[in-house]
Amino acid sequence: MSGRPVYIVDGARTPFLRARGNLGPFTPVDLAVQCGRPLLLRQPLAPTDFDRVILGCVNVVANEMNPARVAALRLGMGEEMPAFSVQINCGSGMQSIDTAFRYIRDGGDDLILAGGAESLSHSALLYNKGAVEWFAALNGARTFGARAKAMASWRPDFFKPVIGLVQGLTDPITELGMGQTAELVAHLFNVTRQEADQYAVESHLRTARAQAEGWFAGEVEPAFARDGKVYELDDGVRADSSVDKLAKLSPAFERPWGKVTAGNSSQITDGASWLILASEDAVEKHGLTPKAVIVDSHWAALDPEIMGLGPVICSTPVVTRNGFTKDDIDVWELNEAFAAQVLGCLGAWEDETFSKEVLGLDGAFGKIDRQMLNVDGGAISLGHPVGASGNRIVLHLVNALKRLGKKRGVATECIGGGQGGAMLIEAL
Q: Among residues 24, 65, 341, 366, which is most buried (max CB within 10 A)?
């Protein structure tokens, strides 16, 4: 793409913490601050030297409206720091990077902090419609008789909450849950339950190995709760996972024959991630050492019923229009919303008819090397804090390319509502 080169200088994230049925220790901004402080402290520049802050967040909590601005102020970036939040469901953390990329590429800014934060354990519990109407009637009553009449219409089910997270994971157009869309993708590309479970096991074992080998050092910063507890590692990883154990779980959405279970799906999680993006001028001015350059990005959309195929329709053009084939991509980070969805994407790329009719290619895009796909696991083992995941996969792609001595990678994700986002990255 034309314009100035845009460099990824550094990045950090919190441990991804599994939601366990109650409020987690951190709000979205808490999480953003926990990994933002050590990231900014290790830079040879002041927090006020940035031009802008952009943060992806989906489930914004009521007392943190525009969490990007709240985080920027808490990080000591100055009252004059412009900051805004972005929301494109699962792609929010990548959208922050892409927006920053375009600001810098086009010459508007030189140094941007771009991230994503999500605390799914803090998702809202809502009153149902009947309760809202009852409160409205009670509030509008002006006489004792009117108030008594309103009080008499109260019913116990008014206090049965609507779980906001469940609504958020249901597509409002198709009325399908995200897991049901993964079932459709599995059906289209003949993904079996055993294949999905095997993929999930591999995700956990890869992440467990990465933790044991210290491969997340410098990427994951510890988070400190107000009660003094320290969270150092992603806590949803199951090093003892096995196909036999996962086979005992019932389908979560389509019983009895469904392929998608709690064990082969991404975990409901809290977490945050940041990247520092810089122009060449900023690199020279501040003496920075970039890790990678953003080559290109692409966003695409498709039928919400098969939203899990989003990575295929956005990654393919970002690869081909830059003159590459799948063999030129050394490492892939494909967000693991569901094992069946990831395997469906791989099946689509191998399918000649799909590649011709949907992707506009002359033949099949080709088979992705599984050894170079999500090399250290993904959302199945780490969790999927929705607003942060797109940022995390870019951050980890950069670090994985460096560790493995590879040059080029793609980070991509499916997006609830029927979209996909992809970034093409080259290591320096």
A: 341
Q: Are 215 and 8 in contact (CB under 8 A)?
A: no
Q: CB pairs under 8 A, 24+ apart, for 152-156?
A: 155/130
Give yes or no for a contact between 197 and 244, defined as CB atoms under 8 angstroms apart: no
Whether 388 and 272 have beta carbons less than 8 Å apart is answered as: yes
Q: Are strands 408-415 and 331-334 parallel, antiparallel or unpaired?
A: parallel
Q: Both tokens of residue 235?
A: 């806590």
Query: How many whole angstroms from its chain centre is CA 117?
Result: 9
Q: 234 and 14 in contact (C-beta within 8 Å)? A: no
What is the homologous superfamily of the domain 178-213+294-427 according to CATH?
A: Thiolase/Chalcone synthase (3.40.47.10)
Measuring CA to CA, how many Å separate 366 from each of 3, 20, 346, 351, 409?
A: 31, 40, 9, 8, 16
| pLDDT score for 131 | 79
d(CA 17, CA 403): 25
pLDDT tens digit string along 211-229?
Answer: 999 999 999 999 999 999 9
Q: Are 105 and 293 in contact (CB under 8 A)?
A: no
Q: 128, exposed or middle or buried, with CB in 10 Å at 0-12, 13-18, 19+?
A: middle
CATH 3.40.47.10 residue ranges of the chain are: 178-213+294-427
Check residue 134 and give its pLDDT.
Answer: 80
Distance CA 294, CA 89 (A): 22
What are the φ and ψ backbone dihedral angles of 3, each rounded to 5 degrees? 115, 180
The single-letter DSSP state of residue 240 is T
Q: Which residues of the chain have pLDDT under 70?
A: 1
With 0.70 as the threshold, say if the pTM is over it: yes
Q: What are the helix (H) ranges across 291-371?
A: 310-320, 339-350, 352-357
- Enzyme catalytic residues: 90, 414
CA 44 to chain centre: 29
Asked if 61 contacts 122 with a C-beta cutoff of 8 angstroms, the reply is yes
In single-letter form, the type of residue at position 55 comes to: L
